[in-house]
Amino acid sequence: MHPPPTNKYLFLGDYVDRGPFSIEVITLLFAYQVLHPDKVFLLRGNHESRPVNMQYGFFLECRKRYSERLYDAFQLAFYCMPLCAVISKKIICMHGGISEDLIDLNQLEKVDRPCDIPDIGVIADLTWADPDDKVLGYGGSPRGAGRSFGPEAVRKFLHLHNLDLIVRAHQVVMDGFEFFAGQQLVTIFSAPAYCGQFDNAGAVLTVAPNLVCSFTIFRPDKSYEGNTKEQKISKPHKVSEHNEKK
């Protein structure tokens, strides 16, 4: 993988909290976005929200190292971030999951930003929702925000919006990626050895111009703390046989 502007990058949210270098991470990403606005795209995750990042470390990091004024400036930036992206009209990406209330993607153009993330509704689902194979349609969420959704909900959502694949993040998956609903949805988790408490791999999804998807896996190297080993997955996933190139 090459840094921008050689490649385009789409990040799926949760840039702060649960680590000592949130300020460096989000500042670097914002700088890349300013330098290469047509190559680097940042979506909003549930941690780009004051009630969450006030609790899980970002507020204390900003206050201890700089000031509460810096923290407030970051919140305003988070309140203006986009919630989802569509690649070549066939792959939809978000941090959380799909929403029963999202009937037309043009609804997203009418979101009144800057805004925080509510507990229910489209914005909440796009940043908080999770897949659940025990649910057919939509159901409640144990997180207390957003909803859970099942394979049938995925199928109907893709059909309604004429899409082929949902790409989301939000949950630790041990191999760095995990398919759901007959490979109509994939969860991507890019932080290996999450919080030092899991033995999970991290993954990056690569989408080729013909929409063939492949994965690069970063596995924790147990012989050296903090190091990772890179591995390419050799079996690509084809989104659709009829897709045109970008």
Automatic annotation (TrEMBL):
GO terms for molecular function: protein serine/threonine phosphatase activity. The keyword Membrane does not apply. Residues 43-48 form the Serine/threonine specific protein phosphatases domain. Residues 225-246 are annotated as: Disordered. SUPFAM superfamilies: Metallo-dependent phosphatases. InterPro entries: Calcineurin-like_PHP, Metallo-depent_PP-like, PP1_catalytic_subunit, Ser/Thr-sp_prot-phosphatase. Its EC number is 3.1.3.16. The keyword Iron-sulfur does not apply. It catalyses: O-phospho-L-threonyl-[protein] + H2O = L-threonyl-[protein] + phosphate. It holds the Pfam family Metallophos. Belongs to the PPP phosphatase family. GO terms for cellular component: cytoplasm; nucleus. Keywords: Hydrolase. This is Serine/threonine-protein phosphatase.
